[in-house]
Write the structure tokens for this entry.
Amino acid sequence: MNRYAKLTSISIFLASLLISGIASAQPSPVTAIDIALEPDATMVHHAEAVNARLRSVFPKGFSLDATHHPHISMLQRYVRTADLDKVYAAADKVFISYNVTSFKLKAYKYYYLTSPSLPGLGLSGIVVETTPELVKLQHDLIDAEAPYTVATGTSAAYVTTPAAPDINEATIHYVEVYVPEHSGEHLELHVTTGLAPVDYLKKMLAEPFEDFTFSPSGASVFHLCNYGTAAAKLKELNVK
């Protein structure tokens, strides 16, 4: 499995959210977070169009909504819950030093991944080209959040659902090793678009993909769920 597959496979179980709502997280001394860019209307339009297409062939698939918001993960970490306000402030200082809304990012292909937990189905997304600016942004976020970061967390650090009250070990480990295994030269970016049968996704990937450019419209800190889903927005960050 290549690095990109390792990165994105952690979110493959998004289907667990299809049949249940997000449950309120129990108070925990540690919170698993995702600091993410939120794409502009251009990317959202493309993502929603693909999502609608996938749902037309697989109606049980998820819609892009408040618990499946299009986003680009920049950093996943365990942080002390008591320090969340400091986490937000540190992220704000990083983002305010970048003009992220002026970034011109390129979307250049579709991808999909499979998992034994979803037989016959694939999780699809749009791949975003990594740039030196994004690598530096992530580096600065890592440094800024280091004082509030802890080595690991338990299921209590995450949002859970009635259908999946526990967080699997793969998810817990993934966030533990996000730095360094998914940072720096290993940074890979994507926007998840939905679920569909593998045979359909194979045909879709064989179609020509017309590259397009877009920009971030904002950034937020999300509370993570099982398989790395950015399930609940904790804080909208200041950007320029």
User: Anything to note?
Assistant: Residues 41-57 form the longest helix (17 residues). The chain is about 30% helix and 30% strand.
